Amino acid sequence: MARLLALTAVALALAASSVAQVPRLVGRVVDTTGHPLANASVELLRWNTGRTLPLPTDRLATTDDDGRFSFATSALEFGFTWSGVLVRAPKHEPERLRPTPEVVSAGNFGTIALRRGRIAQVFVRDRDGQPIDHALVEIVPAACPSFLGTERFDGRRTDRHGLARFDGAPRGPVSCRISAVGHFTREIRCASEPLIVELERSGFVVGRLLDSQHRPVRASVRAVWRTPQVLGLFDALDTVPTSEDGVFRVGIEERERFWLEGSAIVENSLLTWRSDPLHGPTDGLDLVAAEPETHVIVHGAGRPVDSARIRVVFLPTWFESLELEQQRGFFRSAAAWTLESGEAWIGEPTGVGHETWVEVEADGYVAVVHKLEHGTTTILDLDEAATIEGTITNEDGEPLPHAILGLDRERSPGFPFEPAFSNTRGRFRLSGLDKGRQAPVVRAVGYSPHRIEQLLQAGETRGNLTFRLRRANATSGQIDGADIGPGWQVSIGRADGDGFRAETSPLRVAPDGSFPLPFGLPEGRTLYFSLQRGGVLGEDRLDVESTEIHEGVLHARVPKLATLDGIVRADGVRLDQLAIGLRETTSYSWGYPRVSVASDGSFHALVRPGKYTIAVLDAVSGVLLHETEEQTFESGKNIQDRIELEVARVTLRFERPAGICAIDELYIEQPSDWVYAQPLDLGVCGDEVEILLPRGEFQLHFQQSSADPNGFWGNAAPVPLTIHTTDEIEHVVELPAAN
Q1: Is there a contact between 290 and 350 (Cβ–Cβ < 8 Å)?
Q2: CATH code assigned to 562-645
């Protein structure tokens, strides 16, 4: 069921029942001295599920003179619909915040302090040295692709001198993505000041969209290329409409192999186009649609379903097993609707490397995605969606307003779903459930969660249900036995064959070790707890040894820890580009904790008792730059260390085989008994990267796409690299072809 319909239904139900307002999202933005920041922007970040949903008008708020902001969006809706907020203010670093349970329950972000950002200047010019005006320069997180998408921190257009100036750029590792019409896009680390970027001219693909009778078609066309570092997803380069003559002119922004896709409704048939892989500028490309020979008939409960919405989905052959919500990240065509007979006709391209699926949605039915066979007739019998309605009360029978009805993620993975909320009389209505496969769960602040065990049948409506929630046996928690500093969070979950799996959002731990439990704890299950603190290369992680509940407080005991305080000194290196890792000498893992280094070279870590070596790492590439002798960390003991570092700042420039741009990631192998190797994202056809390396011999391993843009990844032969000096080095690497 579409998100808009679900939210509208909830809104109407609440309005009809004279519902009191649930907590709204509010907060205050200040600088590090506590002064309010007026006119700061706070933006709601949506989950990127590929759904074509309208954005609410209130997704962006601005702070007043006292630095305060508020949203019309409810806090509960925020917790289930949005992935977080991005806070930005002139001359200050942006800050991203995720929806924690305490924010969802109280609707208050509290005070958000933004640090003063740095000034960044980016000069954009072509290969002849001429400035490029109106180029778009975006600051984005460095080397952190995500299935949910990556939002940008800031964006500026260049002036006539080719200059884009940022006052408030993040101080941590970030990338600059530079794009301009008629030029290839580049994404490189924004490390040097000022940054001079040269763009190479690209070109356009010009052609026509034709139906099966070679008549021009008005439609939209986009160029897409594969993004293998993001689970093999596909990104759009540009989307343009065709003219009345069916002519399109699509700009090329990437050098990766790409192809064109388009769709249109022609004479009640859904036509789709997909070109063969392209390698560069092309003129006179005619894309001819296939005859609409694929016949789809949609039934519901044995009867034809009219006005069911149908879209074509192109999926690579090796992604067949993805859940519905994940499949929505791929190409989806324009929408067609079934006739009164429930029929629809589709003309879809045939080719190697992809399969054509059809996505069907209809009011009152469960959405499906079904694989199509070209030229055949497919009958889809949709299941009627189930509905439950009733009342939520406490143990005394008193109604509980603002309770949340969502899904148990353990029992219902991968389903798109909208939550519902109880009104002031505790009444709720939850619809759109798939038969027997979704287990709703009820949550209310101060009460233990209640899982609705009655699995529903197709089309069933269960009314007058009453769910009595027990008061939570613990409404707050306390970490005992460790000196908890800032930045720690605790997750609650379960243990399975894959290790610890969190079932709650991370709960922020206060300096005194306390943390809130707004939604209580699941009953009748063995719970596991994990403390973590975000780091540059990963997380500090401490497992909780034992727990007990005393007077409504959950006490989680961790062992007494050792502490490490140190400082790193290195000439010609930005110290905040370094990270510290500790390796327990009985283990060959990456080592915990992993912590960042401050701009003055200082670092601090909490460490489990044991024997460790201390390693200095390049925060981006994970390369081991230096490792100390083994030291013993005893319970309650403080270790202090000073590390002198000699490393070279190396710029690798890549020469690619003619016409091929398929290198995606770089691994650096070094002679060490333990390896911090982590993939260094080169971006889509990045042609240079800056890393830190010590003296020694290394092997550069490149991972690249195969010749088929839909195919599996291939590995290129390794390239040797020897570092003799600690001066700045520029090294040209001739990239080999894939194996």
Answers
A1: yes
A2: 2.60.40.1120
Say which residues have a Cβ less than 8 Å from residue 264's Cβ, sequence separation at least 6.
209, 217, 218, 219, 220, 271, 334
CB 117 within 8 A of CB 170: yes
The CATH classification of domain 118-180, taken from the options 2.60.40.1120, 3.40.1280.10, 1.10.10.10, 3.10.560.10: 2.60.40.1120
Write the DSSP assignment of 426-479 as a string of letters: SEEEEEEEPTTT--EEEE-TTB--EE---PPPTT-EEEEEEEEEPBPS-SEEEE
Q: Hey, is 576 helix, strand or coil?
A: helix
Two tokens, residue 623: 């390369």
pLDDT in tens, 543-602: 565 678 888 888 877 767 788 888 999 887 878 778 888 877 665 444 455 677 887 888
| pLDDT, average across residues 243-272 | 81
HSE-CB for 379 with a 13 A CA cutoff: 8
- Give 334-366 as a DSSP string: --EE--TTSEEEEE----SSEEEEEEEE-TTB-
Integer angstrom CA distances of residue 626 from 115, 594, 715: 30, 14, 28
Q: How many residues does the chain have?
A: 739
- Lowest-confidence range among 302-316, 569-583, 692-706? 692-706
Rounded distance, CA 361 to CA 385, Å?
A: 11
Cα 739 to Cα 736: distance, rounded to the nearest angstrom: 9
Task: Give the model's pLDDT for residue 393.
Answer: 92
On whether the CB atoms of residues 282 and 732 are closer than 8 A, the answer is no
| CATH superfamily of the domain spanning 203-382 | Carboxypeptidase-like, regulatory domain (2.60.40.1120)
Q: Residue 482 — very low, low, confident or very high, per pLDDT cuts 50/70/90?
A: low
Burial of 673 (0-12, 13-18, 19+ CB in 10 A): exposed
Stated pTM of the model: 0.48
CA distance 257 to 708: 9
According to CATH, what is the number of the domain 3-114? 2.60.40.1120
Is domain 386-468 in CATH 2.60.40.1120, yes or no?
yes
Q: Which residue has the higher pLDDT, 502 or 739?
A: 502
| Cα end-to-end span (Å), the chain | 45
Q: Which two tokens stand for residue 16?
A: 């009809």
Q: Are 407 and 439 a contacting pair, CB within 8 Å?
A: yes
* Surface-to-core class of residue 234, CB atoms within 10 Å of its CB (0-12 exposed, 13-18 middle, 19+ buried): buried
CA angle 447, 449, 454 (to 5 degrees): 135
Distance CA 521, CA 446 (A): 10
CA 624 to chain centre: 28
Bond prior to 720 in cis (omega within 30° of 0): no
Residue ranges covered by each domain of the chain: 3-114, 118-180, 203-382, 386-468, 476-557, 562-645, 648-734
The Cα–Cα gap between 536 and 486 comes to 16
Convert the pLDDT of each residue in 15-68 to its tens digit: 333 333 445 678 899 998 899 999 998 887 654 333 323 334 456 788 999 999
The whole-angstrom separation of Cα 449 and Cα 468 is 10
Say how many C-beta atoms besides its own lie within 10 A of residue 620's C-beta. 23
Q: Which pairing describes strands 638-645 and 562-570: parallel, antiparallel, or unpaired?
A: parallel
- For residue 486, whether the previous peptide bond is cis, meaning omega lies within 30 degrees of 0, is no
